[in-house]
Design brief:
Blueprint: H1 5-26, E1 30-31, E2 54-55, E3 64-66, E4 69-84, E5 87-94, E6 103-106, E7 110-117, E8 126-128, E9 152-158, E10 163-168, H2 173-178, E11 183-188, E12 199-208, E13 227-230, E14 241-244, E15 248-255, E16 261-265, E17 270-275, E18 278-279, E19 286-288, E20 290-293, E21 298-304, E22 308-314, H3 337-346, H4 360-366, E23 380-383, E24 386-390, E25 394-400
Parallel strand pairs: 2-12, 4-7, 6-11, 12-15, 14-25
Antiparallel strand pairs: 1-3, 3-4, 4-5, 7-9, 8-10, 10-11, 12-13, 15-21, 16-20, 16-22, 17-18, 17-19, 17-21, 22-25, 23-24
Bound molecules: copper (II) ion (CU).
């Protein structure tokens, strides 16, 4: 087994975290390398029985095999998190990140999961969707005592199913999830996949009330969130999903936010093939272009990759924006020129906006206008043809003919075949003879 230096560091870190006892036994134990973000890695080899998932902007927790049991160690703790360059916050997560690392195993495996609580208040971990003994279900007060600060609990059970699952606290849940405590738990089918998957992506949907000019999410917000994220990142900081033409791609999406999200992918009709109920029988697969992932649900979609740059985003238009005002007067069509001078006398630099629409937001961002501190621009991002005017739950599926298997490097922007890009034919508003309804 080949280990990169980064994998070794990770594995070492995990062993240190499990304490001296685990370290003593580690010499004879097998260590499984996960993949880490911001590193050009091939998929981790798994245990040879599955192709590992790629957690967007995230990582997979290495495990130690002890007497046939896969041991994982989660640490509930505060973590400094960057949503996008220029926007950071003190969040809560696991093992130094939000979302926490992905746990990955195979149906039939026995897993032992240590949970150390390094928060200032008690916590638990609930294994969302898993079939297990009631006392392992992680509901504080109902199925176990709470894990007090400084304590370590151990969960142990056999995986009785396969599918896309999650873990999250079931203690002061509203607050702990609002601060980012959640992670993916992927269980691969025993005996492999009937229809082979070439690229297997996974992410969790979430929302955050990180008010402009603040550095800690506000758990009291229920509706008007500031940031909408894939794996706790906003566009343009969300990684692209890369694939080679003709490969079969699966995208696993879970939702632990406070809204339902219609996840829409351009360029293909995908199949909805599974959920926390595992990969469904093929006669239940259905063809869609948008699939709503409701709160607490998981959905798997699959498609054959077609060359191009294809948008993948939540179809709630406000969920592809970053921090913005709500319940403000609508300026569209309002001539504010007289007001501008008067306001400027009191507020130098004041600039009215929105008379012709909101695209000015990105122009102002591009011109270097500063918003409040630590606040991502409402709409942002640059593409090969100009501004994308997106934020939040948006990224790009990039499919190319010439990628190597297992190469996840961002290939840049798509080179369109000649004659296949929409182009300008006139600059005259009176062009042509379009049929218009008379009023
Ligand atoms: Cu949404």
């Amino acid at each position: 087994m080949t280990l990169s230096r980064r994998d070794m560091m990770l594995a070492t870190g995990t062993l240190v975290a499990t304490g001296a006892a685990a370290l003593a036994g580690a010499a004879s134990a097998q260590t499984h390398p996960g993949h880490t973000p911001d590193e050009d890695v091939k998929p981790a080899p798994g245990d040879g029985r599955y192709a590992p998932v790629r957690t967007l902007n995230g990582w997979t927790l290495p495990y130690t095999l002890k007497d046939g049991v896969k041991e994982f160690h989660l640490v509930a703790e505060e973590a400094q998190h960057e949503f996008a360059p220029g926007t950071t916050a003190t969040c809560w997560g696991y093992n130094g990140s939000t979302p926490g690392p992905t746990l990955e195993a195979v149906e039939g495996d026995r897993v032992r999961i240590f949970v150390t609580n390094r928060l200032g208040e008690h916590t638990t971990v609930h294994w969302h969707g898993l079939i297990l003994p009631s006392g392992m279900d992680g509901v504080g007060g109902l199925s176990q005592p709470h894990i007090q600060p400084g304590e370590t609990y151990v969960y142990e059970f056999t995986l009785r199913q396969h599918g896309t699952h999650m873990y999250h606290p079931h203690a002061d849940e509203m607050t702990q999830m609002a601060y980012g405590m959640m992670g993916l738990f992927i269980i691969h089918p025993r005996g492999g996949e009937a229809v082979k998957i070439d690229r297997d992506y996974a992410f969790l949907l979430h929302n955050w009330a990180l008010h402009p000019g603040t550095w800690r999410p506000d758990p009291s917000v229920m509706v008007n969130f500031d940031l909408w994220t894939f794996n706790s990142k906003v566009f343009p900081a969300i990684e692209p999903l890369v694939a080679r033409t003709g490969e079969r791609v699966r995208i696993r999406v879970g939702n632990l936010s406070m809204w339902n999200h219609p996840v829409h992918l351009h360029g293909v009709e995908f199949l909805v093939t599974g959920s926390d109920g595992g990969r469904w029988p093929q006669n239940q697969w259905r063809r869609e272009v948008t699939e709503t992932v409701s709160v607490g649900q998981m959905r798997d979609i699959e498609f054959t990759a077609i060359p191009g740059d294809w948008a993948l985003h939540c179809h709630m238009a406000h969920h592809t924006m970053n921090a913005m005002g709500h319940e403000i007067p609508n300026p569209t069509g309002v001539d504010q020129s007289g007001v501008e001078a008067r306001v400027r006398a009191m507020l130098p630099g004041f600039m009215p906006m929105g008379r012709e629409g909101m695209a000015e937001h990105q122009e102002h961002t591009d011109a270097g206008h500063q918003g409040p501190a630590n606040t991502a621009a409402m709409m942002t991002g640059k593409g090969p043809f100009g501004s994308l005017e997106m934020g939040g739950m948006f990224t790009v599926v990039k499919v190319r003919d010439d990628l190597s298997r297992g190469d996840y490097t961002d290939p840049g922007w798509y080179t369109h075949p000649p004659g296949t890009v929409a182009s300008r034919v006139s600059t005259d508003p009176g062009f042509g003879a379009p049929i218009r309804r008379k009023t």
